[in-house]
Amino acid sequence: MITKKNLLVVSFALFSLFFGAGNLILPPQLGFRSGDFWWLVTLGFCLSAVFIPILGIVAHAKLQGTLFDFGKKVSPTFSLIYCYLVYAISIGLPSPRTASVTHEMGIAPFFETSSLLTSVIYFGLVFLFVINRSKILDALGKVLTPAIILILVCMIFRALFGYEFDFGKNQLENPFSSGILEGYQTFDAIGAVVVGGVIIISINLKNDQIPYRDKKRAISKAGLFSGLGLFFIYTGLVLTGALFHGQFDDGISRTALLSGISLKTLGNTANLFLSILVGLACFTTAVGIVTGTADFVKAQFQNTKRAYLITAVIGCVLGVVMGQFNVGYIIAVALPALMFIYPITIVLILLNVLPEKYASKKVFQWVVVTTIIFSVPDFLGSIGLGEATQDFVKWIPLSEFQMGWVLPALLVFLITNILSTKSQ
Question: What is the pLDDT of residues 50-82, one digit of tens each?
């Protein structure tokens, strides 16, 4: 049986894995731009950045397997392609973004150095840690997350009790959908299907005699506890951003806003401390992403060290190339990839959570294919080619919110289940 202490450890580990340092720059600007609708944007953000990722952990608790198991009901080939896409996106976007966040929050305010130099040094160190697989970062990570949370909680409380609840005007056309789409940028749904397998392995190593049902219940509880923690932190950050609506220019960047709020609420020393902690936490995240990707590729090539080394080199080179750009640019570049891969990930999570009788192999296949087809217009729109599908898209419900895949996928899910029931 998993003890309460072990459950707490797993809950905190999940929270730490989801709460990447890059994530905390997203909620404040949402609040800053949403005005009186900060609560609505919070609901949208937490739907895609908390609820769906936690369902991903629940799905892992049910499967107790790896990322490959999420899509194998569609077909083994599809699942393998999906895995490669997820890992390629991970080393190409969220990993480099950690270097960009580190430069903008921890380097640029204090030193006159170029972002390229920061990126080169940053991923040079990442490469060394990935090759040597040092356990120093694991120990460091256990200290970083609590320290960052403590500073953020202090910042949030200082904002709540030090500023009037005057939120200004909403600048977002659709606050709820804007929150959902910004939640995509956390990459947490993708993180759930990737790191959930790591949690399963860790539990099995320490508790290999525990029955399947007990592990499933414990992992699901840990997911719920970590989800509640994420919800309160994200809500506090959105509300804090809303309280500072008149304190900064409307066009302020995400990193500058977080630094500015930290400076106003906590002063120079705490702001400097937060910048250092964020930089270190970003570094551990980058090492984790590159290591995880290299491990996956290595497993596909008969566990050869060469495959691991080549993947690590590619991951760090991509990090240098992309990491020299500012955070806003990387977020903009990430949008097309997310508009395609995120709907598929969400659907796979939801289908894997459902009981087997509602999620047969045929249901998986038809729902995923439908999701892919109806995600294409949103993908094309995100790269400026929306006019090519405009006549078609206007008939799709929710397409104006860039979620035209939702109702078609739901409809196909219902029809496929009804037909399957009648054929039995």
Answer: 999 989 888 887 887 778 888 999 999 999 999
Token duo for residue 310: 């080549």
C-alpha dihedral sign at 324, 86, 81, 413: negative
List the structure tokens of 296. Answer: 């996956």
In whole angstroms, what is the distance from residue 353 CA to residue 60 CA? Answer: 8
Enclosing H/E stretch for 25: none
**Residue 339: how many other CB atoms lie within 10 Å:** 23
pLDDT at 390 exceeding the cut of 80: no
Given a cut of 90, whether residue 246 has pLDDT beyond it is no
Q: Report whether pLDDT(99) > 70.
A: yes
151 compared with 142, residue with greater pLDDT: 151
Within 8 A by CB and 6+ apart from 67, the residues are: 83, 86, 193, 194, 197, 296
Q: Could you tell me the domains of the chain? A: 4-352 (1.20.1740.10), 354-424 (no CATH)
**Which amino acid is located at 69 in the chain?**
D
What is the reported pLDDT for 267? 85
SS3 content of the chain, % helix, strand, coil (to 5): 80, 0, 20
**What is the C-alpha separation between 384 and 288, in angstroms, rounded?**
33
How would residue 27 be classed by pLDDT, with cut points 50, 70 and 90?
A: very high
Res. 353 pLDDT band, cuts 50 70 90: very high
- Helices marked H in 167-253 — which ranges? 175-184, 188-206, 212-243
Do residues 100 and 326 lie in contact, with contact meaning Cβ atoms separated by under 8 Å?
yes
Q: Which one-letter amino acid corresponds to residue 60?
A: H
End-to-end alpha carbon distance in the chain: 39
User: Tokens representing 9?
Assistant: 């450890």
Q: ∠406-334-96 over CA atoms, to 5°? A: 140
CA atoms within 13 A on the CB side of 54: 19
Distance CA 140, CA 132 (A): 16
Three-state SS for 302?
coil
pLDDT of residue 62: 83
List helix spans (H) across 2-93. Answer: 4-18, 26-34, 38-46, 52-63, 67-71, 76-92
